[in-house]
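Here is the promised in-class demo. Please do not try to memorize the tokens; focus on the logic of going from shape to residues.
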């Protein structure tokens, strides 16, 4: 089994017409979870930060993206359900023996990062395709069982680490704690739904590692 992190710098993404079209509309778009895979494509829960003077309708003008429903709005971001019909996105979700982990997305400053895990041969084939279609600037590959110690932070994004660390500091996980998710969201200046997704994904990653150790 292999765990892979793929990173693209902004300059590399700007060489792709499809990515450039998105970055003309948004400052960032982050896929928080995969809601479902349909015959048409992947329905995603996404947080979008629009550029000034841009609107959500502009995103739906991209041939392979469609905003289905607005779920929550903040001053500088909006959470939506989004249909992505791009063949690459759908194949990445459906490809056997590989799992792509949200959150992931495109940022006008940081570029893009995608994390996945799966059987070594399947991951190798998928990365080979990527090298042709959109070559990553950095590829980090680790064996899931490189060592006896199962580092629980390995699969977490920086935002997930921040959220979990803050929640621990506030005593959220204490058995008698009265701290609510909204208290953590307010402390971090984050939408409650966004926080909930980060917490859910972080807890999932951590418990997977616990399960591996128990085996």
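The designed amino acids, position by position:
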């Amino acid at each position: 089994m292999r765990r892979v992190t793929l990173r693209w710098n902004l300059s590399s993404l700007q060489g792709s017409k499809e990515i450039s079209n998105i970055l003309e509309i948004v400052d960032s778009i982050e896929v928080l979870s995969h809601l479902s895979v349909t015959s048409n494509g992947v329905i995603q829960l996404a947080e979008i930060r629009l550029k000034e003077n841009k609107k959500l309708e502009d995103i739906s003008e991209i041939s392979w993206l469609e905003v289905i429903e607005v779920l929550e709005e903040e001053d500088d971001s909006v959470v939506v359900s989004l249909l992505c019909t791009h063949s690459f996105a759908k194949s990445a979700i459906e490809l056997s023996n590989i799992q792509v982990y949200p959150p992931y997305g495109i940022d006008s400053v940081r570029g893009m990062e995608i994390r996945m895990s799966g059987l070594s041969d399947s991951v190798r084939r998928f990365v080979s395709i990527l090298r042709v279609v959109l070559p990553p600037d950095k590829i980090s590959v680790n064996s899931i069982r490189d060592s006896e110690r199962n580092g629980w932070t390995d699969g977490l994004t920086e935002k997930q680490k921040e959220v979990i660390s803050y929640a621990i500091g506030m005593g959220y996980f204490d058995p008698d704690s009265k701290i609510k998710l909204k208290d953590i969201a307010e402390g971090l200046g984050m939408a409650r739904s966004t926080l909930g997704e980060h917490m859910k994904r972080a807890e999932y990653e951590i418990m997977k590692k616990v399960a591996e150790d128990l085996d």
